[in-house]
Amino acid sequence: MTATHLTDRLPFSPGITAATPVRVLQQISRDRGSTALLLGIPCMLMVLLKLMFHDSEETFERVGPQVFGIFPVIVMLGALLGLALGLLVSAFARNEFQAVQFLLAGVLPQFLVCGLFLPRDEMYGALAAVARAMPMTYAVQAAGEAATHSGVTALFVRDAVLILGCVVLVLVASAATLKRR
């Protein structure tokens, strides 16, 4: 089978798929504000964390790399998960304000119990169980693995697969709730 026949059978256009990231990168390169945010936010985040934990070097050493490592993971997977959750919520929300309330109700608890501020094994039993059901928990754990090991570990791969699984699950649920014309 030739390459032309293979691309004819794909459910997407490789040319369009490759053009999308090129277009996004071109737009970002033209937008100085976005470039400044992409470079400045991680630096400001580390300075803020250092100031928050200035009395506890041990806590900063534990939390700092995880937050710094989780930032790009949350941005990438969070964007996918956010898109999927946005689609899912749009089926139930009557307006934008209600949709934002739904998303805050889902994101804030994840942030509080993801293991970033208190290790999951030190949490009250019910909170630890809730944390195990939250995708952000696995993002924090994966970032911790990346911070403490020089290579890719099985736990990191498992956590990344779980996060991607959550994205797929929410996308499927979103697609099932969309109204058909």
Task: Sum this structure up briefly.
The chain is mainly α.
Which stretches are poorly predicted, pLDDT < 50 over at least 5 residues?
none
Main sheet characteristics? none
Helix/strand class: mainly alpha
Q: What order do the SSEs take from the amino end to the carboxyl end, as H and E?
A: HHHHHHHH
Note the total helix count: 8
Radius of gyration: 19 Å
Outline the structure in words.
The protein has helices at residues 3-9, 14-30, 32-52, 57-90, 96-113, 125-132, 135-148, 154-177. With 181 residues, it is mainly α. The longest helix has 34 residues, at 57-90. It starts with a helix and ends with a helix. The model has no long low-confidence stretch (mean pLDDT 79).
Write the layout of secondary structure elements.
Blueprint: H1 3-9, H2 14-30, H3 32-52, H4 57-90, H5 96-113, H6 125-132, H7 135-148, H8 154-177
Question: What would the keywords be for this entry?
Answer:
single chain, 181 residues, mainly alpha
